[in-house]
Queue: 4 jobs
Job 1
Amino acid sequence: MKKRIFHCLLTATFLILAPAAFAQRAPVRERLSMNADWRFKRDDPPGSEGVLSYERIKDWVTATGNEFTGSKSKRVRPAGNLGEQVSYAQRTFDDRDWRQLNLPHDWGIEGPFKQEYPGETGKLPWWGVGWYRKHFTASSKDKGKQFYLDIDGAMAYATVWLNGKLVGGWPYGYASFELDLTPYIDFGADNVLAIRLDNPPDSSRWYPGGGIYRNVWLVKTSPVHVGHWGTYVTTPEVGQAAAKVNLKVSLDNNSATSASAVVRTQVYELLNGQKTGKPIAFSDPTTLTIAAGASEATTLTMSVNKPKIWSLQKPNLYAAVTTVEQNRRIIDAQETVFGIRTIKFDIDKGFFLNGEHVRLNGVCDHHDLGALGAAINWRALERQIEILKEMGVSAIRTSHNPPAPELLDLCDRMGIVVMDEAFDAWRRGKKKNDYHLLFDDWHEKDLRAQVRRDRNHPSIILWSIGNEIGEQGNAEGHKLAAELRDIVHEEDLTRPVTAGANNLNAGYNGFQKTVDVFGYNYKPTEYGKFRQANPTIPLFASETSSAVSSRGEYYFPVSDDKSQGRADFQVSSYDLYAPRWAWPPDVEFKGLDEFPFTAGEFVWTGFDYLGEPTPYGGDSTTLLNFTNPAEQARMAQEIKELAKIRVPSRSSYFGIIDLAGFKKDRFYIYQARWRPELPMAHILPHWNWPERAGQVTPVHVYTSGDEAELFLNGRSLGRKKKEQYQYRLRWDDVKYEPGELRVVAYKNGKQWAEDVMKTTGPASKLTMKADRPTIRADGQDLTFVTVTIADKNGLLVPRSKNRIRFELAGPGEIVGVDNGDATSFESFQSKARNAYNGLCMVIVRAKAGQAGAIKLKAQSDGLAGAEIVIGSK
Ligand code: GAL
């Protein structure tokens, strides 16, 4: 008999069977998806409003985090039940007329957009109270087992009841947490989970989403078992011949008597997420004796011969399978995925992975997935990372909160390093109801929980304790920073602790000494001075650029003044424009090239996100970015002026890639720098300017070459060479005439790459392309279909905004439409959409268990329509 782990993503069920030697077939641990078939309703039942407000229930909920605090901070849960008087929490409540849905779910993304809602959080209704209920049967065969509910993330202030009894809760909406259901389960009967979320308004600087927006799991174990996040792998010695692997495992004993158990671990190679072959390393067995109700830990050691190293090019992974035995019977097993690699931040040279210098070519991203909102979807995230990798991204910063666990799994598999961030605020808030209200009670629990959850991921190279924290400037902040750093160090000493500092003084006032590696936000001219003052602190650019642009928009005359380039609530795409604290990409590149000890940068942002539509809003950030009172006052005035206008913007302009996932021009200035070995050239703007005949229409070129020659209708407009600290080639005096622009790029004197931009004919047809022609019929998998407004030759027609209608037949559904226009209030769930500058995106999901052909048709008045077939298997 073979040991097997059934593993499929998202809707997954994980069953671990005992290994062969133990002649036993029963699953020893189950992890079952609890995403299907929930009932949902907004608001509290009439008459119960406020009864369950956090202030009233806090003492019950805070005790949930006891596992993550020292004994002094543990809370005793008050006696009695809570919520008995609230009907929705009760076991017998009849929820049959509630809306039925599957998780992950984000109630905010369903809209509608409203002008009066804050643009800073996307003009969508994500706040308020929501209830989820789910019925499930616990088999009487499972009597004696432990039952846990694992919630990867619920926005926010979750409180959970089982069969009318309060189980516990967790307020931070970005945290993952586990609740022990065992005391409340009824075996052989219908069990009812009720979850109340209470998402405070005015609690975020971006769109947070609302609802149980990540995956939920039911975990069943025997009473003696590996604890929650109970394995921790480190690789203290890595050589070509062998790597030492330490696995610390903690066992919980939930039985009524003391117990002894033997733990051991075997290591397998992983290929595409599956274990392959026989185990390649073994630990010795170790016996642990655990008192009733207690936990004990031990460290198992192993050696992996000729280790396959985890790197960006070859992200090799291993799985450690830890088993727990009693009387030669396996009673629990846990699989831990890990990688073998070394990291180092060097004072003079920056970041090293496996002894090789790797520049952090990073982006910051928020968690929303555009039209899909905050609801996590494996494929949507994977697609984002594919697009980022095409640009040359080597690093992602999870701004400004712990990410979905799937993001880390994907980065492990796809070869991306990660800066895993905890908080956007400590004791000083940025918004009336943000994390500062939770900080004192929860920061230790949230931070320990995050590190314990994430510390086995080889992708993680930095723990960030905060972004642009209000306390950077004072002694209180330095004390807090040191406390947070020490918490992280207690949980993991294998990666440095950092923070993103926007306050220039934080590099000199002592804050810089509280972290292991210092991160500056938006300070490309300051790296040299920082190094002089701090010769022993490694440095990187934790947040850079914040350039703004709208895909396919260009305004004239082109100005190099970064505050210009705005019209119609859009921003010109010449990539010269940025808010006052921010910079065009070129300025940041120069800073990094002048001071190459800086380990690299994290650009704000990879993808556009919902909310924070700076320069047309995003108010709290705008003010926060100024420490100088005069500048703050000036900005406050600008914000006031803006408030008088009905700004329609609901999503950001910062993205290198727009909200629908379409590349802006900026994509290519980063690709040119980050993938110097890739022959490429990119011309901007488009060449459809009938109203500009004879007028100056500058042409800029991004190329990985070092020289280029531009031709207009076959005439050379000159060959230009990049000077030191030049990252684009500019022909600023080109007079427009229709026809063809062609650029020929050179590298080291040799022809290297070409790009062509042609004036197009009028729109005549639609074309469609799916990012994947076949998807899995699992109710989760997606295909992203790009619809283009094309002329008769198939060229994208710039500035076209035609309305497109969609029809779908077969076993799929349209789950989102978007066009990347930051000012669009059209519903993401619609079956029609205006194109924005020639493009529109349709997201199609396969129905679970229904294979077949999904036919998608697109039509637009006056244009030839298009149709494609997507396979679902
Ligand atoms: C930064 C902040 C980010 C975002 C950005 C916009 O200061 O850390 O969250 O607001 O500004 O430029």
Job 2
Amino acid sequence: MSGETGFPAERSDFIREIVAADLREGRHSTVVTRFPPEPNGYLHIGHAKSICLNFGIPLEFGGHCNLRFDDTNPLKEEQEYLDAIEADVRWLGFDWGEHLHHASDYFGQLYEWALDLIRAGRAYVDDLSADDIREHRGTLTEPGRESPWRNRSPEENLDLFERMRAGEFPNGARVLRARIDMASPNLNLRDPVLYRIVHAPHPRTGDAWCIYPTYDFAHGQSDAIEGVTHSLCTLEFEGHRPLYDWLLDNLPAPSRPRQYEFARLNLTYTVLSKRVLLQLVNEGHVRGWDDPRMPTISGLRRRGFPAEGIRSFATEIGVSRNDSVVEVGVLEHAIRDVLNRTAPRRFGVLDPLRVVIENYPEGQVEELDAVNNPEDESAGTRPVPFGRELYIEADDFREEPPPKFFRLSVGREVRLRSAYFITCRDVVKDAAGKVVELRCTFDPATRGGDAPDGRRPKATLHWVAAEQAVPAEIRLYDHLFSRPDPGADDDLFADLSPTSEVVVRGFVEPSLAGARVGETVQFERLGYFCADPDSRPGALVFNRTLTLKDTWARLQARQGG
Ligand code: ATP
Ligand code: MG
């Protein structure tokens, strides 16, 4: 894929090498992968890694990727999640075409295959409770013990399993287990559970079933039914591979997929566990699954991260079998890289300080041209109004400037970006002695930002015209957790950063009055900002996507030099 499509050129990795060899050596003529989310929560940036891999490989080698919902546990799964997952995969830029599947599509076939295993003496109904099964399972150093029900006859097992299906038994009363080897060094092969009784309606199959297959019994068989060639999953499933293979070897599977494992994505300052993310939402620590601080795809989108940046991040980190933790700065760097090219420059003031230009005619307004994107000349310019009263950033003024502070103070001249040079003459204070207004003069000869005599102020400030500026709520976001390894000291929730969201009331230039939700701009000198869906006409809300400070780029430059 080329840059033209917005998809970064892929680097090779061990999985791509396997795929290339399988095609070269004729083991497959086309590649079929799948992305198999369980619809029990929203997708996160770790899933994005898996999506970019699973959808990226067929784009590169020919073939297709199935979107398959692993919807085998109706207690945890909801339609809201199914819808959100589809929207997120599409937004990331991928298309499954006609290849949308659900594990629940195969419940009938899986049930038949379970009967086959029972008839062959390879599965049995066990009456042990979940606790007893766990207790019989043994440990890594001790073999398991056989269930007293392990040697039931196929006839008795068939009868009981059919009655499980018919709804005769309550939840947890019985399970169906594979009959493999209770002494296997691989715990996954110690008679794993294949079916559970769950009396709960399913989002798709309704009340048709009250027994549901486990992940292990559904996954490989679904792959085989769909003709998946390469089933790519994260390393924690490595130990399940012998079971994946055992089931396919012992069933009349219509095709023979292979499972390959890669390292899951871990990010500093970030938790990528759906269980924890659900808890953050349910306990109200965040504004919802799409809170701009969440590592969910919908949260990153609301935050203003472009899909292109997420895809290039996935390419950048690559795919390997080594578990590691990626610096969140690598993701932020990839996002800034895209936004620096694409985000129009605008003026916004977060902490406004009023400026009155004493020698500027009262009531006069003029339009100045401001450059939309210095990185992209074709983006052109836009008019910004200028008048006698302005707002600048309070932080850009010091009554007593420390050394190396070159911005505004009394007696000093600075440039207002795309406008004029102004000199501060005096300050106005409130009763508490706080500076609330600057009295300044401007030099009319410096219109556009250059002086005919060539003098150059040491600082250039952003600003907005007070009368035309649009008030806005601006939400300043930072990492959700205050330490790179949240939860390392046990209490994850104690590591939530109290300053992950700071809400301020500022002003933006009038061209942003109709900002589209999701549109990301750069507020000059401050960072990237994105209009939030909470915006209402006359009540704009912006999210700070990222500041301009790229500590990752600086770190790399230092290492390079
Ligand atoms: P969690 O453990 O957070 O609940 P999960 O892995 O159970 O997530 P699934 O919906 O089963 O969530 O995941 C769908 C696919 O995404 C799986 O193939 C899984 O391996 C992959 N995946 C999940 N988390 C990551 C991650 N952090 N990095 C890469 N791939 C991931
Ligand atoms: Mg899972």
Job 3
Amino acid sequence: MTATPEKDQVRIFDTTLRDGEQSPGASMTLEEKLQIAEILDDMGVDIIEAGFPIASNGDFEAVSEIAKRSKNSVIAGLARAIHTDIDRCGDAVKHAEKGRIHTFVSTSPIHLQFQMNKTEDQVLDIITDTVTRSRNLIDDVEWSAMDATRTPIDYLCRCVEAAIKCGATTINLPDTVGYATPDEYKEMFVQIRERVPNSDKAIFSVHCHDDLGLAVANSLAGVAGGARQIECTINGLGERAGNASLEEIVMAIRTRGDILPYMTQIDPSFLVRASKMVAGASGFAVQYNKAIVGKNAFAHESGIHQDGMLKNAETYEIMRPEDVGVKATSLVMGKHSGRHAFRDKLRELGFELGDNALQDAFRRFKDLADRKKHVYDEDIEALVEDEINVLGEGAKVIALTVIAGTGGPQKAILTMDVGGQHVTKEATGDGPVDATFNAIKAIVPHEATLSLYQVHAVTEGTDAQAEVSVRLEADGRIATGKGADTDTLVASARAYVSAMNKLALRQQTSNPGALAAV
Ligand code: KIV
Ligand code: ZN
């Protein structure tokens, strides 16, 4: 979609892989980041902030790799106002057809005094120096005034003027601590654009955190004040209460075009799929009543609503579910479906598996169809995502028997494939899940601690597949695994083993030889 005289284009800058990944416990593997970047690129995100290249070798590798693979999106990396950060960022984004260095410094009195121990004039010198250095490396430079909303407007004007003078092409004024209200935030952009010389030489950007639940409202207010770039994340993932949610912003602009005279080039039919992908990779499940992408966002339970919906969907629906990629739940496959039909169904759902993975997934699908009356698209998605989770990695769950009930202790008898060998052990625990996890520990001894255990039903009914997320932590590293099965305990074991494999893989990458015990 191109901008029309009536509708200004607003650029969508997605920072799921940087600000989103920064939220505690949300770290993602390289493979997950590449998949997310691909869907963001495909859906029409203008700028993807792929990471913080100086933060670790893993971040550098992710930004470089995403830069190499990007098709249409600009690929940005974040850099503090330090030469080594900027140079490292430049090295990572140079692989992109369109790369951007995003450098930032704090400008508020509280940050200057307590975090930086610098005077206002010193920070102005830093801005001049670091924006100039960035511009010497690349043409597309974004400068951010961290904690802009708590910065006196006169000083903020001087900072923005310095950044534009040194060649910053985008000026981002974040509400870093989620403190602003919509009127205030709008007014800040109006003032800055009016008062700063050459303000028309840069694109202004909003970046809002959701501490008071105002991130989306503030972002739209900033646009009303003249900003034309919105920084946001899928599912609103991000530090503390999160960032403004991409799907809410895109659909608000699209649905209320009557009073929001803007447009984005996002194809909204990717939104639900991107949301599921980010939830899976980060381990942060989406709440059922989350706007746009929550499981209940288009569900109508009450009789009055259902009656209205049957007569005319617009009685209670302001958006069509299919616009955001919600498929009508379909009964698709059963135990008589063959391998060909299964592969076609996978393609329709967007999965392309290699021969071995397809074989494994098909075997599990048959197994599922034997146990579950109706197999829905969601079941197949969960099963295949689970398959992808364990692909090519160390240990695998082969068989599990659990003895549970009122008279504890509960007992698990588990067989796993570890390095090609089948090992069986028994363990007891405080409940069946604990017993299962203890049995895994008995087979693969490790020190990792469990920091998250979540169970969701994939579809309706008592024979629904359970989708379990498990997060493990060891030596400051975090990994999230998912598992799906009609048996919650089997799903739990698969999720735990998947997280354990990922953690081992990470340890191995940073310290070859450390695989044995996670
Ligand atoms: O919230 C913030 O201020 C940021 C900056 C680094 C842009 O994330
Ligand atoms: Zn932020």
Job 4
Amino acid sequence: MKEGQPKAIELKDYQVPAYLIDSTELHVEINDDVTLVTTTLIVRKNPESTAGTSDLVLDGGKELVTRSVKIDDRDLSSNEYGEEPEVLTLFDVPDNFTLRTQVAIKPQDNTALEGLYKSGDMYCTQCEAEGFRNITWYLDRPDVMSKYRTTIDANKSQYPILLSNGNDVARGESGERHWVTWEDPFMKPAYLFALVAGDLQHIEDSFTTMSGREVKLQIFTESHNIDKCDYAMLSLKNSMKWDEEAYGREYDLDIFMIVAVESFNMGAMENKGLNIFNTSCVLARADTTTDLGYQRVEAVVGHEYFHNWSGNRVTCRDWFQLSLKEGFTVLRDQQFSAAMGSPTVCRINDVARLRGAQFPEDAGPMAHPIRPDAYIEINNFYTATVYEKGAEVVHMIRTLLGADNFRKGTDLYFDRHDGQAVTTEEFVKAMEDANGADLSQFRLWYSQAGTPVLVIDGEYDAGAGTYTLNAAQQCPATPGQADKQANHMPLCVGLLDSAGQDMPLTVRAGSDGVSPLAYIENADGQQTAVLNFTQAQQQFVFEGVTEKPVPSLLRGFSAPVKLSFDYSRDELMFLMSFDADGFNRWEASQRLAVQVIQEVVGQIQQGEKPQVDARLITACQNNLDQAVERNLDSTFDKAMIAEMLVLPSETYLAELVEVADVDAIHSAREAVRDAIARQLSGVLLAVYKLNQDDKAFEPSATECARRSLKNVALAYLMQPDDTEMVPLCVAQYKSANCMTDTSAAIRALVNSAAPAAQLAKEEALTQFYHRWVEEALVIDQWFSVQASSPLPGALDKVKALLEHSAFSMKNPNRLRSVVVAFAFQNNVNFHSKDGAGYTFLADMVIGLNSINPLVAARILSPLTRWRKYDAARQELMKAQLQRILETPELSKDVFEVVSKSV
Ligand code: PHE
Ligand code: ZN
């Protein structure tokens, strides 16, 4: 390691804090030039610490300007404390004392958006993970919990609204200024602190909890967004109700506030009683927000609300435990969304997200277990692994134990650890203790990285009436973890007879006399065996099997693994039609599509003309025919059909092979889309027309399903270069009564190479921009539609967009609408052979490094995946990583990701 390079923090070095802070009083005086923070802490030596020190070591950001340090009201002299960058050490302090510090900060210059900063005209905070230290000197670690009392003092007319956690207990004014004091009765770690000062409007509602307490609900925004808060309010009330019913969790304060801010690094933040949201995750209005946007609002509002228990009441001991709150809370928000809409479609989207983001991460240089054992910068561990795979791990516990027993486990967990800062171990222990279960081998999921690969084959013995699954699991090596042990996972299996019905299941005990069967789930026509798969190689024998079955494996995606089973295309078509498990019907459609696309990739690589297997076309036709026949049948799930018609993404197709041929994958997928579009044009148009409707927008699951099927059909209709559907698409663009339809139409135009679409797309883009110039989130879509277009020449387009007056590096949403859309969602153009896409991304990372390190490190991940590509591209990508690494004053965030990748 070079001198001066940042050091890794390791889980094994964890020690309890040497001091505790029983009470935290903040006085924040906001002025245009400088904000003064006066902090009064009641400090005491931690009786559990064996560190044997009498020095108090506080954390503080680089920008703090210390004005005074007092112990028990006495100013410390310069030899009683030492200030180094980011550390303040108070020498030889008493066992109990009051510490008062005053610092000056400049939120208006804080472009990293961590700590106290300005979003437009308002002040707001983001303290997770380590932002609080940018506000004041503190013990900024989640196992130091304290009671907070916060006074905000600001100009009355500029900042009429002053908010913090808990209840407002006092207020006053003098001259042009006013102040409000907030008190939070719950102990909390500093990362849950929040403060807002601004000229805000709000909507208000109330919720009566299960024990009959009335809670005031408020959503705050700047005035131009106040008409887009209703859906978030509805989602909040639904979340509160759902958490009472599904987990027995009641809200605990008299007020719950959400504030929408425009500049925010992530989605949203669960600060106690005062959630702060990226506008993109809270605002929704029919004409500005797509169905996907509505779903995101519902999911994120739920997610942050659920954190009140899984995260706030029971919090994390240290940041290695991040998945304790995030994995569990993602599972909770997924269950909530499923309960509000179509469970199968939700599951499909969750799995697609896992495969699209987490699988590649787990196969790359940043691969880490859901409980990492070392980090340089914790910001880099808010990952798909910690969140999405973390949710899958808790999901597996639920599957292994069964829903009711899982609930017993969560009840015990919340009960036992309320008010504590705990570890993932304590979560698993509660699950075991509540059920007398043994999850010792299961714990490997917390410490082992990598996506296990399952290879399964099936053997039918007609004479014995047995069907045997020979299953093998293997987990590939990941950085720092060469050898892996076998994982314990639930393998959910059904066996279909020739009529497509689930067979009754009997599972034979293993050679050790122990049955691998956890239980059999019987639900509407389903017979699913939940099997304990624990060995590297294991046989599962089903008895009394009267004919050769088609197995439905890993039902509901019962484990986050890659499964290989040698299905014939006819078997896949059979599963698509008959599998009682909806997720596996979709999965069969995807497997069939993968096989067919991979075949076409081979043909393209051989210079042959693409031949698309007719069975895939037939499968799509069956789905479309059904959509016509059952158009008015309310039990028919249009969203599910839409999902089955969407081909696997280029990212996922790349993920499935050792070395990805980006161009061939793109051309093959396009060729298959083209074949479907041409051969099924009649029925596609029929489905489109049947689902075209101009009744008023409703965000309901049924309406959303109708729109998604219609817009999938539209995208196919617009696929061929000689399409005649441009007028139809333009008509939809012009007459659309909701952003879902507007955006599907403009996307189809922008992505079309058809000569007839060229003028139409320019007109639509111009019209769209002027129509929506006041709506930041819609303008984000305008940028992103263009930056993600797979047509040739996208990079020049993207560079032009950077010059647009509405572009800004300082607003993360706007930045992502161009850079993420290009580098993450536009594979062909990003990976163009000349390496120009790579140079562009590196330039952006270098530019952003000094402005917003957290976001800079996040956008660079496509470059870290260089091992996936051919030798020439590998060299080009590595050269750009090297160039980033040589940038002076590289942030810890970027340094960690780049240094691990080269
Ligand atoms: N804890 C936030 C969540 O709910 C995520 C977050 C992390 C937000 C860091 C901001 C900064 O997932
Ligand atoms: Zn979260």
